[in-house]
Design a protein that fits this description.
Layout: E1 6-13, H1 17-26, E2 34-37, H2 46-49, E3 66-67, E4 80-81, H3 103-111, H4 119-129, E5 130-132, E6 146-148, H5 156-167, E7 183-186, E8 191-192, E9 195-196, H6 199-207, E10 213-216, E11 219-227, E12 230-238, E13 241-253, H7 256-266, E14 269-270, H8 272-277, E15 284-285, E16 297-298, E17 301-304, H9 316-325, E18 335-339, E19 350-356, E20 371-378, E21 386-388, E22 399-401, H10 408-425, H11 428-431, H12 438-443, H13 453-463, E23 465-466, E24 492-494, H14 509-527
Parallel strand pairs: 1-2, 1-13, 2-10, 5-6, 13-24, 14-15
Antiparallel strand pairs: 3-4, 7-18, 8-9, 11-12, 12-13, 16-23, 17-20, 18-19, 19-20, 21-22
Helix pairs in contact: 1-6, 1-14, 4-14, 10-13
C-alpha cells in the first residue's frame, strides 16, 4: 500500500442519493471532519443537467453496468442493471420521479421490529429535505435543499394517457405522495427550472466551501480494515494509487444495494462459510449480508404514434430553450399511476409508468422513436434474490441473482397489471392519437398477442426487465439495527436502499435521501 493515510471523523462511502445527503448534513457541524468517497467522477456537464439525456449515460464510464446471472423466469436472460457511477450516484442518471412510497410500506417496517421507521416517523425527514414548488402542507415541506416541482412541459400523448386511464375507470390523483397513492396523474420531479436536481446538486453544491467536508471522486473503496470489531480504516484506490483512509469515529456505507453488501463481504463481514469458500478470511459472521434482495421487475407495451419524436437530430435549440426558459421537450417527464389487482389490499400492488418513445431491448434501443410506452411492475414483490462474492479480488463485480418473478404471486400480479394497461390502450383517447393499436403493437413484438394468460406470460417471459430499484441486501433487523448500525460491529453503519426490510411501493430515490437524512440524525444524536 502506498500513499499517506488521512484521518476523518466520519467517512461516508458512496456519493449517491443517500450518501450526498448524509455527508452534507454531518458537515453542518463545523467541529467534525467528513470524507465522502465516490468511485466515479464529478457529475458535471450536459449529460447530467439535461433531463432528456439520461439514457446517454447508460453503459458508459458513468454507469456501473451490472448484470444479473441468467434469470430463470425471464428466459435465461442476463438482465442489465444500470447504477450511477458519478457524484450523485443514480440520482444523477435516473428519470427524476419524486415518489416516496405508501404509508403501509413504512408501517410494515415498524411492524417487522424496526421502531422509529413508521410512516409518521419518516414523514418529517421527507419534508425536511424538500423544497416543494407547490408549497408546504401536511405532506410536503419547503426550504429544504431538494427542489421538487411539477413537470414543466407535458407532451400531449402523456395527457392523452392520463385521460384514457380515467376513462377506463381509474381516478385522478394530483399527488402520489399525499393522503392517497392510488389513481393516475402527473409525477412531480426533482428538477430545478427544468434541469436535474440530483442529490449532489441539492446537498453537496451548497456545502462545497465547507473546510470540514472533503469529497474524493474517482476513489474506489476496496475493503475495510478492523481492529477487533471496530473499523479503523478504509483501503481505497485513487487513480491507481492505493492508500488508507483512517476512521476516527464512524464509517457509513452508502454504496447502494449491490455495492454495500459487496464491500462488507470483501471486508470479511458476512456468511462465514461463503467468505471462506471465496478465499476471504471471515472476520464477523453475519449470515444475512447480501440476502433478501428485492427489485421492481416489469415490462412495457409500446405504440407508434402520429406525433413527431420527442427530440430531433439537432437538439441544440431545445437545449437552449430549456436553459433560458426552463421548459420544453428536453425536460423529460412521465405520467403514471398506482393500481390494485384486488379490492382487499392495504395498498396498491401495481405501479405503471408511461413515457414517450418505444421501449426495445430493456430500453436501450431507439427510445426516442415517435410513440409511447407504458407498463406495470409488481410494487411489493415476494421474490427474493442475493448479492454474493464472485471473486476475492476487490475489483471484481458481485454475483447478482435477482430471481425476478420467481414467486408465482408476482407473476399473477404482473399479468393483471398488463391487463390494466391493455384496457387503457383500448380507450379512444389513445387510439385517436396512436398509429398502432394492440394488434399492431403485438405484430411488432411490442405487446402481448392477446389477453389470454399464456400469451401474457409469454410476453412477460421475453420482455420483462428491471425498473432499477434494488434494495434489501443489508436488511434492517437482520444486518443493521433500527439506527442502521451493523450488528456486532462498533462503528459501521449502512445508509441506502439496502437497509429496506421490504421494497417500497414506488421509486426509491426519495426514500434513499430520507434514509440519508435519518442516518445523519442518528449519528449526530449518538455523538452528543
Amino acid at each position: 500500500m502506498t500513499g499517506t493515510a488521512e484521518t476523518y471523523d466520519y467517512v461516508v462511502v458512496g456519493a449517491g442519493s443517500a450518501g450526498c445527503a448524509l455527508a452534507a448534513r454531518l458537515s453542518e457541524d463545523p467541529d467534525v471532519t467528513v470524507a465522502l468517497i465516490e468511485a466515479g467522477p464529478p457529475a458535471t456537464g450536459r449529460l447530467f443537467e439535461i433531463p432528456a439525456l439520461f439514457s446517454q449515460q447508460l453503459k458508459t464510464a458513468y454507469d456501473w453496468d451490472f448484470a444479473t446471472e441468467p434469470e430463470a423466469q425471464l428466459g435465461g436472460r442476463r438482465i442489465y442493471l444500470p447504477r450511477g457511477r458519478a457524484i450523485g450516484g443514480t440520482s444523477s442518471m435516473n428519470t427524476m420521479l419524486y415518489v416516496r412510497g405508501h404509508r403501509y410500506d413504512y408501517d410494515t417496517w415498524e411492524r417487522m421490529g424496526n421502531p422509529g421507521w413508521g410512516y409518521d416517523d419518516v414523514l418529517p425527514f421527507f419534508k425536511k429535505s424538500e423544497d416543494n414548488q407547490r408549497g408546504a402542507d401536511d405532506f410536503h415541506g419547503t426550504g429544504g435543499p431538494l427542489t421538487v416541482s411539477d413537470p414543466v412541459s407535458v407532451h400531449p400523448l402523456l395527457t392523452a394517457w392520463v385521460e384514457a386511464a380515467q376513462d377506463a375507470g381509474h381516478k385522478s390523483n394530483p399527488d402520489f405522495n399525499g393522503a392517497e397513492q392510488d389513481g393516475v396523474g402527473y409525477h412531480q420531479v426533482t428538477q430545478r427550472s427544468g434541469l436535474r436536481c440530483s442529490s449532489a446538486v441539492a446537498f453537496l453544491e451548497p456545502a462545497a466551501d465547507r473546510p470540514n467536508l472533503t469529497v474524493l471522486p474517482s476513489t474506489t473503496a476496496l475493503r475495510l480494515s478492523f481492529d477487533g470489531t471496530r473499523a479503523q480504516g478504509l483501503e481505497v484506490d485513487h487513480l491507481g494509487t492505493v492508500r488508507l483512509i483512517r476512521i476516527n469515529r464512524e464509517v457509513v456505507l452508502s454504496l447502494g444495494a449491490y455495492n454495500s453488501p459487496h464491500l462488507l463481504l470483501q471486508s470479511g463481514v458476512g456468511p462465514a462459510d461463503e467468505l471462506a469458500q471465496g478465499g476471504i478470511t471471515p472476520l464477523h459472521d453475519l449470515p444475512d449480508v447480501g440476502r433478501n434482495m428485492q427489485d421492481h421487475a416489469g415490462c412495457f407495451i409500446s405504440f407508434f404514434s402520429r406525433t413527431e419524436p420527442l427530440l430531433g437530430p439537432d437538439t441544440s435549440r431545445e437545449e437552449q430553450r430549456l436553459r433560458e426558459q426552463g421548459d420544453g421537450p428536453m425536460a423529460w417527464n412521465e405520467v403514471g399511476g398506482f393500481f390494485s389487482t384486488s379490492d382487499d389490499l392495504p395498498a396498491p400492488d401495481i405501479q405503471v409508468h408511461a413515457a414517450l418513445g418505444i421501449v426495445r431491448d430493456e430500453g436501450l434501443a431507439a427510445p426516442l422513436e415517435p410513440g409511447m410506452s407504458f407498463g406495470p411492475y409488481v410494487a411489493r414483490p415476494s421474490s427474493r434474490g442475493s448479492v454474493r462474492l464472485r471473486h476475492s479480488h476487490p475489483y471484481a463485480k458481485p454475483r447478482i441473482v435477482h430471481n425476478y418473478l420467481g414467486d408465482e404471486d408476482d407473476r399473477r400480479r404482473l399479468r393483471e397489471g398488463l391487463r390494466i394497461c391493455m384496457r387503457i390502450a383500448r380507450e379512444s383517447r389513445l387510439t385517436e392519437v396512436l398509429e398502432s393499436d394492440l394488434h399492431g403493437a403485438a405484430a411488432a413484438g411490442l405487446a402481448p398477442v392477446s389477453d389470454r394468460d399464456q400469451d401474457i406470460d409469454d410476453f412477460i417471459h421475453a420482455q420483462s426487465f428491471s425498473f432499477y430499484h434494488p434494495s434489501g441486501t443489508c436488511m434492517m433487523g437482520k444486518v443493521v439495527d433500527s439506527e442502521l448500525r451493523v450488528r456486532g460491529l462498533d462503528n459501521v453503519r449502512v445508509a441506502d436502499t439496502s437497509i429496506m426490510p421490504s421494497l417500497v411501493t414506488g421509486n426509491t430515490n426519495a426514500p434513499a435521501i430520507m434514509i440519508g437524512e435519518r442516518a445523519a440524525s442518528f449519528i449526530r444524536s449518538a455523538a452528543r
